[in-house]
Specification:
The complex is a heterodimer of chains A (about 375) and B (about 325). Chain A is an alpha+beta fold. Chain A is built from 13 helices and 6 strands. Chain B has a domain of about 190 residues: MetI-like fold. The chains are: A alpha+beta (about 375), B mainly alpha (about 325).
């Protein structure tokens, strides 16, 4: 006992400096090995790796959407044209390396009951699928003129692998290009909610006292709202006549208002726990300012939790956007999003006759799956110690 | 204990009041009211002239107090609720809002409760099965199912199932609780079977996600508990494995599940609402969406208020159960 006391006394004058040095050194080398540890653990989760690859592919698809989309998303063809099927067998039954398909045309006959014009494959006109073809022109990164597309028909004829919608626009191309708006909405919302939620959470948790009490009461109120009805109420606030970019800003704003509270609650809990841990107390004892403590000691430790919550809330936003689209509160028509494309699926008769208009669901499902798998893997890997 | 409950209930009241104010303002804020819908319908359906329709709309506004300023309307509405339990008059249904609520809210609550119980029961059972057979193929299969349950969006699942049963299985009368011949019949076994035939998709979809969450939480907890010393002791003194798990491990692993119920209730309620909107089942969901689109203010705000009250009550019940189970919670609450 006495030796400890003696040692403690002897060390006191030199303590602050040595600790400060140690922290700086160990933090620096610790950072890299931490990332390595996380990566090593993450690689072991199969679902996580699949998620990572899918997310990477989705992002690439969104960035180079024009290149991947075979048709101009605004080009109108036959309304509600069924999907064309590709096959490797020619019209005369021989095997062909190039996938062949028959474009859908109106047959000139009418449905005996509905009197809708009947459509069907034009067997006289086989067309071949080609890669890196010239098609509709677009601007890569809004600057570089280009008209090269990953695939399409050699002569630029229509190819609707997922069919067409009510105005005869290619669903596949619209889905690929729609990923941009949907993912942009998700990323902006998640970025802003993360910033707001983390800030509020850290401020409440760190300052405590009256700020915390009132802050948490406000968060309680936000969380007491039933989410969906509040969303609908806020969505009806958006003026229908607003121009499309203003409308999308409204949608983003509404989503942010709804989603920051949950994260701030979690971050506050973490901060509360962290503020009582020895190294934060030590930092207070050495006279570090509030800002330094928050920025250097608390924020880095909260970050892992925040990153996981970011990956897991992206699919939630994508989903909410598509559900709102289904209810009729998606972005406005010149813009394309998955939610907007699902708008027509809430009419049973349309859905029954033309089931392929459901196919944007596949995009949403893949996105939700990819980000969830990534987030799941990250959550297990983020705490490797 | 009584103090704990009274405190929780009393502190919920101001939240509800503020919530009702915000909801009412939000719903009333956009321009236009129900009289505009009447005017529109009078012109487009009844072929009235512009002036006649306008006069009709003005008369309606006068009769239903739609010309009053917003704060006054809110005050009238909220004092009606507090003093007479009167939620106002529904424009769209043309009868008291309380009737509309009484007709739909119990159905939603019952459905959500059934889903909730199913999700908890099945989820816990599957969790126990998975945890006691860790890393076996059963565990892997269940983990996969739970991942699917948590990942597949409920409204998309509802949309796909709706498509399959309506257009592939040719089931009619989607969106009703009964076939026409049973709708007026007294309760009987056949009527119950008929009910189940109509609502199973809603129950199935809303249960699926909750089940997955419960199973995950249960599996993780049970694995933690199973590696603790008293389980080892129980095994060492020669108890059969079944008794070790059911008597010693499971009760202790249930604790976080109870804590989680407060979060699970809103999840199940939202699930039921989402699926009911897709299926247009005559519960709260579609009524709420409908009321929002036609500016039926009192219906919309009352439903939001009721749902919020249900959520708050659910949270209080979860807190009470937890306090009953764990003295640390109720004592901790007083100590702070």
């Amino acid at each position: 006992m006495t030796s400890v006391d003696l040692e403690g006394k002897a060390v006191v004058p030199a303590k602050p400096e040595t600790i400060a040095d140690e922290i700086v050194v160990s933090r620096h080398s610790g950072d890299e090995s931490y990332l390595n540890l996380v990566w090593r653990r993450f690689r072991r989760s199969v679902a996580g790796m699949i998620g990572l690859v899918l997310v990477a592919m989705l992002l690439i698809m969104a960035v180079f959407a024009d290149f991947f989309a075979p048709l101009d998303p605004k080009l109108t063809l036959l309304p509600y044209g069924p999907p064309t099927t590709l096959s490797f067998v020619d019209a005369d039954g021989t095997f062909s390396f190039r996938p062949v398909y028959y474009p859908i045309v109106e047959t000139g006959e009418f449905d005996p009951i509905t009197f809708q014009p009947l459509t069907g494959p034009d067997l006289q006109n086989p067309k071949y699928l080609s890669f890196f073809v010239r098609g509709w022109s677009y601007k890569l990164f809004w600057v570089i003129d280009s008209d090269i597309h990953l695939f399409g028909t050699a002569d630029g004829g229509p190819l609707n692998l997922l069919g067409t919608d009510k105005f005869g626009r290619d669903i596949l191309s619209r889905g690929i290009i729609g990923s941009r708006i949907t993912l942009t909405i998700a990323l902006i919302v998640v970025a802003l909610t993360t910033i707001i939620g983390t800030l509020v959470g850290i401020i409440c948790g760190y300052l405590g006292g009256r700020v915390d009490a009132w802050g948490q009461r406000f968060v309680d109120l936000m969380l007491a709202f039933p989410e969906l009805p509040l969303y609908l109420a806020l969505a009806t606030l958006i003026p229908v006549t607003a121009p499309s970019h203003l409308y999308i800003a409204f949608v983003i704003g509404v989503l942010i208002v709804l989603r920051w509270a949950q994260l701030s609650r979690e971050v506050r809990g973490k901060t509360l726990a962290l503020a009582r841990i020895e190294y934060v107390r030590a930092a207070i004892a050495t006279g570090a300012g509030d800002f330094r403590i928050v920025a250097r000691h608390i924020l880095p430790n909260v970050m892992s939790h925040v990153i996981v919550s970011v990956t897991l809330s992206i699919p939630a936003i994508v989903l909410l956007e598509s559900f709102l689209g289904f209810l009729g509160f998606a972005v406005k028509p010149p813009l394309i999003s998955w939610g907007l494309m699902l708008q027509d699926t809430n009419t049973f008769s349309v859905l029954g006759s033309y089931p392929w208009i459901l196919s944007p669901v596949v995009f949403v499902l893949i996105t939700v799956f990819a980000f969830n798998a990534l987030g799941d893997g990250l959550r297990d890997a983020i705490d490797p110690y | 204990m009584l103090r704990f409950i009274t405190f929780r209930v009393l502190s919920a009241l101001p939240v509800l009041l503020l919530l009702s104010l915000i909801t009412f303002t939000l719903i009333e804020a956009p321009p236009g009211d129900y009289a505009d819908i009447i005017k529109f319908n009078a012109i487009s359906r009844a072929g009235a002239t512009e002036q006649a329709a306008q006069a009709q709309a003005d008369a309606y506004r006068e009769a239903h107090g739609l010309n009053d300023p917003l704060p006054l309307r809110y005050l009238n509405w909220i004092t009606g609720i507090v003093t007479r339990f009167d939620f106002g008059h529904s424009f769209y249904y043309n009868r008291p809002v309380s009737e509309v609520i009484a007709e739909r809210l119990p159905k939603t609550m019952l459905l959500a409760l059934v889903c909730h119980l199913l999700a908890t029961g099945i989820g816990i059972t599957l969790g126990i099965v998975a945890a006691t057979r860790q890393y076996s193929w059963v565990d892997t299969a269940f983990s996969f199912v739970s991942f699917l349950g948590m990942t597949i969006p409920r409204f998309l699942l509802a949309l796909i199932i709706l498509y399959l049963i309506v257009f592939k299985l040719n089931v009619q009368e989607i969106g009703a609780f009964f076939s026409p011949k049973y709708s007026m019949a007294p309760w009987s076994w056949e009527k119950f079977v008929n009910l189940v035939q109509h609502i199973w998709p809603v129950v199935f979809i809303a249960t699926f996600g909750g089940l997955a969450y419960n199973m995950r939480v249960m599996r993780a907890n049970l694995l933690d508990v199973l590696s603790s010393q008293y389980v080892e002791t129980a095994r060492a003194k020669g108890l059969p494995e079944g008794a070790v798990i059911m008597r010693h491990a499971v009760p202790n692993a249930l604790h976080p599940i109870v804590m989680y119920q407060g979060v699970a209730l809103p999840y199940m309620l939202t699930g039921e609402i989402e699926v009911a909107i897709v299926f247009t089942l005559a519960t709260v969901g579609p009524a709420l969406v409908g009321a929002m689109t036609v500016n039926d203010v009192y219906v919309a705000s009352s439903f939001v208020l009721m749902l919020a009250a249900v959520l708050i009550v659910g949270n209080i019940i979860a807190d009470i159960v937890l306090a009953l189970l764990d003295p640390r919670v109720r004592l901790g609450g007083q100590a702070e």
